[in-house]
């Protein structure tokens, strides 16, 4: 998944700011796509994972800090939307309560919400991607990813589903969806 300068020309035009929320399991390619969409939109990309890691460095671990990290990112996104900027959120968004933050934020800010759910339809490839990451506390193992998959609630509502196992660049389709 690589971008080119031509990707930027496909960016949505006019219409004002929007909130783009990426969702999907670790290792499916959502952070890569979120970064590319952010570049195409000239929009800040706000990932939840570094906020969770920062909270953990201060001893805040467990389920509640995970939601607190989502809340912190939602607060930052609200500021950016208030400045008239589009915002791209990069998060697993595994449960309805996390996803609800983005719906509520879009409504408060008066901006459209576009959800992009990313998955890797080839489990062997997904596992390869997860296991190819640098082994450290920042990235889940394949076994931890499977546990997260078991707890991943089905997404209900409008969204674009992107399969990164397909050998085509998904960016043009994502940008078309955002228009």
From TrEMBL:
Which terms are listed as keywords in the entry? Answer: Kinase, Transferase
Top-level taxon of origin = Bacteria
**Which Pfam families has this protein been placed in?**
AAA_33 (PF13671)
Kinase as a keyword of this entry, yes or no, is yes
Q: Name one GO molecular function term.
A: kinase activity
PANTHER family reported for this sequence: OS07G0160300 PROTEIN
- Name it: Predicted kinase
Instruction: Identify the species of origin.
Output: Micromonospora mirobrigensis
């Amino acid at each position: 998944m690589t971008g080119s300068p031509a990707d930027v020309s496909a960016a949505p035009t006019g219409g004002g700011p929007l909130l783009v929320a990426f969702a999907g399991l670790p290792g499916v390619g959502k952070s890569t796509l979120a970064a590319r969409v952010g570049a195409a939109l000239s929009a800040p990309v706000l990932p939840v994972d570094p906020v969770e890691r920062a909270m953990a460095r201060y001893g805040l671990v467990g389920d509640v800090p995970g939601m607190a990290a989502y809340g912190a990112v939602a607060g930052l996104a609200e500021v950016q939307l208030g400045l008239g900027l589009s915002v791209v959120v990069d998060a697993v968004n595994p449960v309805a309560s996390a996803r609800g933050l983005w719906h509520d934020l879009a409504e408060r800010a008066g901006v459209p919400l576009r959800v992009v759910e990313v998955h890797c339809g080839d489990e062997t490839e997904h596992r390869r991607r997860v296991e190819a990451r640098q082994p450290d506390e920042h990235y889940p193992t394949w076994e931890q990813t499977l546990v997260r998959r078991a707890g991943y609630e089905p997404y209900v509502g409008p969204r674009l589903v992107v399969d990164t196992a397909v050998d085509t660049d998904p960016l043009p389709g994502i940008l078309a969806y955002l228009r």
